[in-house]
Design goal:
By secondary structure, this protein is mainly alpha-helical. Helices cover 54% and strands 7% of the residues.
Length: 110
Amino acid sequence: MDSIELNPLGGFKIHTPRACVSYDLISCWSENQSRAHLGRLSAAAIGIALLDAGLPRYDIDAALPISYGGVVMDKLISRGVEPSEIIEKGMLILTKLAPQILREEDIKKK
C-alpha cells in the first residue's frame, strides 16, 4: 500500500515518517482505548503520512500525537471526510507503520 484514497479529497501517497514519529503514534495505540482516542490517533496517522493533503504539520518536539490528531480530525471533518473513514484509513496507515517499531508478534496482538 503506497497510496490511499480519502473521500472526498482524493488519493494521496503515503510517506513513511521518521522512526521517532512512528514511535509516537504506535506507543499510543492500545487494545483498550476509547473510540475518541482511536479517532484522534487515526487522524494523527493520516496527518503525518499524507504530506500532500494540506494538513497541519506534526510537531516532533512536542510529541503529542493525540492532541495533534484532534487538530487534524477537525480539519478533515471540515473538508467533508467522515469520522468512520478517518478511523478506517488511519488504522490502515498505523498498520503500515507498525513494523517500523514493533516485532511481528506484537503487531498481531493489536
